[in-house]
Structure formats: C-alpha cells, structure tokens
Amino acid sequence: MTTPLDRTAVGGTAPDVRMVHLGLGAFHRSHQAWYTAKAGDGWGIAAYTGRRPDAAHLLAAQDGVYTLVERGAASDRCEPIGSIVRAVPGDDVEDFAATVADPAVAVLTMTITEAGHRLTPQGEPDFDDPETAADLRMLRDATGLPRTALGRVLYGLDRRRRDGAPPIAVVPCDNLPGNGETVRRALTGLAEAALPALAAALPDLASFVSTSVDRITPRTAKADLDLVRRATGRSDRTPVVAEPFSDWVLSGEFPSGRPAWERAGARFSADIAPWEARKLWLLNGAHSLLAASGTLRGHATVAEAVADPVCRNQVEALWDEAVRHLPDLGLQEYRGALLERFANPRIEHRLAQIAEDADTKLRMRIAPVARLEREAGRSAAACATALAAWSRATGGWLDDLAPDLAADPVFRTAYADAAETLTRPTTQESHR
Ligand SMILES: NC(=O)c1ccc[n+]([C@@H]2O[C@H](COP(=O)([O-])OP(=O)(O)OC[C@H]3O[C@@H](n4cnc5c(N)ncnc54)[C@H](O)[C@@H]3O)[C@@H](O)[C@H]2O)c1
Ligand SMILES: O=P(O)(O)OC[C@@H](O)[C@@H](O)[C@H](O)[C@H](O)CO
C-alpha cells in the first residue's frame, strides 16, 4: 500500500520562510533547495514558478515536500526534501512581492533560464523587448502587475524598499557568466527607467551574489513516479531526478544572513570567475556542442552522443581550446570526471532539452572561447565546429549569433570547413 507524500515524511514541522525563490523548476529542487535542506538550520523557502503554475500546484498538494532521486551509474537513492514550505504560482505577483518584502526573508534565489533574463547579446537590459517595455510602463505608471521575471523582482524589491525591510541577498543561479553582477546591472538599468527611487536605494537594499551552479538535472520521466512509489512506499506526483554530483561556488555578501550551505559542500570564494569559466566552457560548452552535433548524428541523449567517437573527439577538441584560457584548477581530473558524468547511462539527459534557447547559451559557452583563441592567433576550429553544428541543426546564422566572429575571415574559413566536415561521412561510416 502507498501513502501520499506529505510533510510527515520529513519530520512534520515546516521551517519558517526565510528564503524566496523565483523559477520553481527541477534544478532549484535538486540544488538550492537540497543544499538548504542539508544545511539543516531551519531555513524554509517560498518558491514561485516562472511561467506555468503546474509545478506549484503539484508541490503544494504535498506540503512542498518531494523526493530527490539521486541517480548513480549503478543505482538510485531516494530522499524526501522538506525545505520548500510554500509553492506558489508565479502569476500571483502580489504574493511574491509580499514575500520578498517580508523582513524575515533574507535571500532571494532565482532560476529563470538564461533567455528568461531578456538581455541583449551584450548582456544589458533589452528595452526593445516588448514584454520588458510593457512591464516598465506598468511599473512606472503603477497600472498593473509585471509579467517578466526581472519585472517581478523589481516589483518585489520596490515593496521591500517602501516597507523599510533590511537588505536582502539576490542570488541568481542560472548558467550565466557573472550572474550576480549581470542581474545587478540589469535590475539597476530597468529601475532607472521605471522606478528611480528604487534605483537609488538598490545599493543599500540588495546585495548581488554571483554563483557557479552544477548538478545535472534532467526532466523527470513518468517512469520515475513508479520507481519512487516502489522504493519509498509513498506516492510522489512530482519527484526530481539528479546525478549524485553537486557543486556550488558563491561570491558575495549576505547582509541579513543565509543558510549554512557550506555544511552541504557549498564553497565561498572571493574570485568566482575561474570556477565559473571552467564550468560554463567545459561542461555547458560540451553540452551545447553535443546537443547540436549529437542530434545531427541521430542521438537523443548526452550519454548516447558522448559514446559516439565523432562527438567525443569534438568535445575533446573543444576542451583543448578552452583549457588554454583557464588557470590550473585540476583541469585533467575535471575533464575525466565530466566524461564519466556525461556517460552515466541511467541519466536520461535529452539533447532536445539542452538545445532550447541554444543561441543565447552558445553566446556564453562557446563564443567567448572562440574569441580568446582568435586573439591568441589560432583559428578556433573546435569552437567553429560547435557553431557550425548549431547552425546546421537549428538553421541559425553565425552573423546573428556572433557578428564579430562572422566578420573574421580566419574564423569564417574554420566555420565553413567545419560545416563541410559535418556532412561528410567518417572513414568508418563510408566503409559500412
Ligand atoms: N537542469 C540543470 O541541470 C541545471 C543545472 C544548472 C543550472 N541550471 C539553471 O537552471 C535553469 C532552469 O533549469 P530547470 O532544470 O529547473 O528547468 P525547468 O524547465 O524545470 O524549470 C525552469 C523554471 O524557469 C521558469 N522559466 C522558464 N522560462 C522562463 C522565462 N522566460 N521567464 C521566467 N521564468 C522562466 C519556468 O517556469 C520554471 O519555473 C536553467 O536554465 C539553468 O540556467 C539548470
Ligand atoms: O540548464 P540549461 O538549459 O542552462 O543548460 C543545459 C545543460 O547544459 C545544463 O543544465 C547542465 O546540465 C547543468 O548546467 C549542469 O550543472
């Protein structure tokens, strides 16, 4: 017999809400909520969805409690997680703002996806984006509620300013370089356009923490619901599956306190840039390369693609280019560990998921390495392969993604050569 999952699975008492999260997806639950539960020092989270309410409804029906399935190469480990105390649809913007303004709340984390930031390719607020422009008008004229993620954050922070609550730490957890500083600049620019009093107050009202986040978390499959029921004897309508590995590097101030995330292995560093570049260029860069090239070669998951020698060689070549621009942070070991993580046959990480919003991702994961390679006088052939595969898989144009690289004759030649190679069968294939 199975019993429904609820708070009794985690001891019965909910911790007080001291953290708020925007973008209640799989990754928040496998990562920040997991670190917060492991810290064990009584921080509860009120989590809001970004776009669709479904995740909030499912989770709220279970008192916010869900099962984390840690999926190793050989077996699964199921654990109930109880740090999310309230799960709320994101379109309840008034509720979100009231939580952000709550003086007991000290931390605001976010996973709104890279594209959800609605930034220009240069990483600045995009005032030409119609939804951003509509939010700015509403905020300025106080005529409605914002719909974009950053618009909602501005609305919440402005409520906090007006209520005179103590400063809050804003902790972006998307795969964006310098995510804390990027979000600080974006919010400041947007506030200057619509809420000048907030723009002036922001430096005292909020700190911005940059983070490098890592835990491969694919979308949950239907079969995982049965698996959890069999393994735990409880029916969970919304478990989350992740690899056993997890990493979190943070840099910045927490003026009103934070959970003791270091108890769960989080690291605090004054200089996050090298860690972040290592993760974005090696892990995420390879993911985006595989999402394009692996799809072209008929693969559906990361594990399938990385087992293909053609894709694997492309990944190694990309890494050879990237590591020339990274300090020695145990790069050989890191590469070896990544190959093992990618090869985990039980993690069904679909290339189609990684390929979503591919152009935004490639701008951050591949283009920076290509530029550094070109500055060093090399052709950046492996980056060119990644971009050519993306173009072939999606119909995207290099000129739109990275006009500077498109205008560089050496890179352009490498890109054209790569495009041609992608259509040519390998020696093995031509002998079949
Ligand atoms: N899944 C991973 O392995 C992983 C690992 C590291 C970092 N991340 C970061 O977390 C983000 C979310 O990943 P996930 O696995 O939770 O995805 P998910 O699809 O499970 O959840 C995405 C969340 O973002 C919200 N969202 C999506 N588009 C949005 C938009 N345009 N504006 C506002 N909110 C929006 C969704 O409503 C949802 O709440 C990724 O984009 C990435 O930046 C994910
Ligand atoms: O989550 P996204 O969409 O930014 O990117 C897809 C993957 O590259 C990413 O989720 C990785 O699995 C993750 O960053 C590992 O920590």
TrEMBL record:
The residues covered by the Mannitol dehydrogenase N-terminal domain are 18-262
Question: Which GO molecular-function terms appear in the entry?
Answer: mannitol-1-phosphate 5-dehydrogenase activity
Domain Mannitol dehydrogenase C-terminal as annotated: residue spans: 271-396
- What keywords tag this UniProt record? Oxidoreductase
Quote the catalytic activity from the record.
D-mannitol 1-phosphate + NAD(+) = beta-D-fructose 6-phosphate + NADH + H(+)
Give the matching InterPro entries. 6-PGluconate_DH-like_C_sf, 6PGD_dom2, Mannitol_DH, Mannitol_DH/Oxidoreductase, Mannitol_DH_C, Mannitol_DH_N, NAD(P)-bd_dom_sf
Instruction: Give the transmembrane region(s).
Output: none
**Where does the UniProt annotation place the signal sequence?**
none
What name does UniProt use for this protein?
Fructuronate reductase
